[in-house]
Design goal:
- This protein is mainly β.
- Strands 1-2-10-7-12-5 form a six-stranded antiparallel β-sheet, with no helix packed on it.
- Strand 3 and strand 4 form a beta hairpin.
- The longest helix has 6 residues.
- It is globular.
- The model has no long low-confidence stretch (mean pLDDT 96).
Length: 183
């Protein structure tokens, strides 16, 4: 696996290496020792999977009291995946990184604790799998508006399919419920 540049010290983009032969393709999607060597030395406690239609935006989600680190990859289709630094006091507060994750490019994105995460589906259907470092707690689940003007993320979709929670999410500015930056 190769580490690709993101412009953030904490966000890690990985290029997985496929092994192909006449039978098809094999890809190792996680080995703790290899990930620890590249700076992802966490214990994952839950695996999640979502399947979404084209034009769906999921996010921008984060957790306040029990933040989750997320290791995300796509097993079918394509998404444009975004990690936004919403940690109060962080030198990169309000900055974001976006990248295409697809079954074809076999990339994974590490989104550390304290960052908001979201993606938009570009293919007809996308299957997204992610490992997380803290169990889901619905009372701790938070969101930032997908179309937040401070972040100005170019989602390239005018009328996205949204959950009720995501459609009602508050903007970043003035949000009293944001994680704090811990150097």
């Amino acid at each position: 696996m190769n580490v690709l540049e993101t412009g953030f010290r904490e966000i890690i983009l990985l290029q997985l290496e496929p092994f192909a032969d006449a039978r098809g393709v094999f890809v190792e999607s996680y080995r703790r020792s290899a990930y620890a060597r590249v700076g992802i030395d966490r214990t994952f406690v839950q695996d999640n999977f979502s399947q979404s239609r084209q034009g769906t935006i999921r996010g921008l989600h984060y957790q306040l009291r029990r933040p989750q680190g997320k290791l995300v990859h796509v097993t079918r289709g394509e998404v444009w995946d975004v990690a936004a630094d919403i940690r109060q006091g962080s030198p990169t507060f309000g900055k974001w990184f976006g990248t295409t994750l697809s079954a074809e490019n076999r990339r994974q994105l590490w989104i550390p604790e304290g960052f908001a995460h979201g993606f938009v589906v570009r293919s007809d259907i996308a299957d997204v799998a992610y490992k997380i470092t803290a169990e889901y707690d619905p009372d701790d689940d938070r969101a930032i508006a997908w179309n937040d003007p401070t972040l100005a993320i170019p989602w390239a979709v005018e009328a996205p399919l949204l959950s009720k929670k995501d459609a009602a999410a508050p903007p970043l500015a003035g949000n009293a419920h944001l994680p704090s930056y811990v150097p």
